[in-house]
What does this fold into?
Amino acid sequence: MSDDGGSVPTWEEVARTHGRFLYTVAYRLTGKDDDARDLVQEVLLRLHRGLATYRPGSLEGWLSRITTNVFLDGVRRRQRRPTDLLPEEPDRADRVLPATKAAEEAYSDATLSADVQRALDALPDEFRVAVVLCDVAGLPYQEIATSLGVPVGTVRSRIHRGRALLRETLAGRES
Amino acid sequence: MRPRGAACLAVPVATAALVVSGLTAVPAWAGGDAEVLRRAQSASSSVAFDGSVLIRWVDGEGGGHEESMPVKGKGSELELGVGVLQPALTWTGGVGTARTAPDPAAKYQVRAEVGPLILGRPTTRVLLGLDGQVTEQADVDDATGLLLRRQVYDARGVTVRLVEFITLEGLRTVTSSVSVREPRPVPRLDQVPSPFPAPIELAGGYARLGAYRRGPAVQVLYGDGVRTLSVFSQLGEADPSALPTGGERLAVRGSMGRRWTWAGGQVVTWSQRGTTTTVVGDGPPAEVLAAARSIPEPSPPTFPARLRQASRHVIQLIV
Amino acid sequence: MSAMSGMAHPGDLLSAWLDGELTPGEAREVAAHVDGCSACGAERDQVEASRLAVRGLPSMEAPAGILRATPAVHVGDLISACLDGELALDLRPGIDAHLAACPACAAEHDEVAWARTALRALPLIDPPRDVMRPAWAWPAPAARPTHAPLRPRTRQLLAATAAVAAAGVGVLGLVGREGPADSSRPAVASFVSQHSTSSPGPDAVSGLAPAAMPISFTR
It folds into this structure.
């Protein structure tokens, strides 16, 4: 499917060509398979209903923007009705692509991946969103800034602090 | 549901608070959130709609099944499914129990929180816990109270049943001009005839709600506020050729019985002392089995009782 | 990161002020201080220069050496910008020089670079198949032939029992006090249907939908 910069892709096209990307971003944002599914379903539904205005540019940037909006909508709704502890929900293991490395490396990669995800989950929302959009979705700062509606300087600062916090959390686990 | 083990990396503030309170991996549950569930109970009769639902369920061997069907809410009646050989199930209300079901909060830890968007609609999520583990999750539409998604989990946290709306349109408040169809009355029993057992309560917090005559059998209905369970008793040893094929053999109170899974729950049948008992329940397998095993043994039928039962049996079938 | 010393020197707030993120009240206070404080004014110039560089505007003749000259000004989030290639090339030598001279920033650089690498090494996740095939997009559930329900069995049952009844009451085990056990034919599918329609749990739809399917049993 070509990025012809004008027409809106159908939800089927998006599901076919960017399904993995969408789900990965959603999973890294929410940390849970069930929530990631709901997020992706809502994004596809918005595409299906023609509720997302397409602007020419990076397709992945556009998809990331919609996903982030849905995610932040949920965050805002939760803030209006504060809840304390989230119960532990049945969680499916990461659906990780099969590694081609040696078994040991692959195993340590898999556990590191899970550890990094848990550290991501522990980040405050605004830091997690910035870090995921930069390091998982691979968007440039300016696109992240447009998605979130904040200045580039803020994006830079959140990414930086998010990464630093992540490292702190992971270092704390090792000791 | 896996307990948080060493694989869990960061200890978020929330979990730290749990450990402080002396409970591990158990969320704090608030009371009073059962109101959302009560709303869901009556919602499908207070709002009309046109939709379809998806049902997913797991059988006793762990195999997954999936089915979808149209559902129309017409206020006073609910029309589910459509088929060539099987007509739609039209439902206008239950049997009307003698006792109201217990408060869910008596058995479950009930917790409501902001739920996900389902079909673009904001929901409230109600979680039901047993001993700190989530056993059921219900996502209720904020606007209408319709239960848009319901998931039942077993003790390991695996989803055993999921029912959710996949399309939902034409929502409108019910108008008074909708025709009301009277259900065929089911004969209610004030007393369960001997020798059938009908304890006030079964294991798992199931309270007796009522008893009904169902042809040659007697149905005793139980509920725990969220789930229901029926105990069908009839005279005679079960004729194996009359039972559904397949199923799993298992022991119930020293007798050999059979257990089946169906899309809506569990069925267990066994015979003991001249009485055959069939238990049908909505809960996860272990729960239904525990309730079935807590039914006391029937007394051996007396001669007059067998005579009564037998003649009624014959009359019922010939008529 | 710049050392915070209350509102005497704005420190970190300088960046926020320049980004327009402070409330009007806070902005006024910071502006007032910077006007009157030469140290903070100089810092403002440097920070402004690097921010302009990041935004892609030509940098204002800020020599690369200026960052090295004032090691108290730590580079902070410019480290991330540098790692992500979001920093103007002419500023990079200055950053590198500072990192060489400042152990605190060098350590911060290593931490953040590690986290960035770990994050970028995260694998793509294969979504469960049904997520990309949302059920609302399936063809509408239409009338489809279902296997026949109970009636044939009931007819069989009637025939069998009628035959038994005709053979005489004795067959039903009424002879003697404890005759041979009666055999009963629990109509399991019927029971399931009756149970479901009695009182369908937390809500009618989820309780009845399974019962509206042809009732079949598995292990």
Observations:
- Chain C touches chain B through 62 residues (CB under 8 Å).
- The first strand of chain C starts at residue 183 and ends at 184.
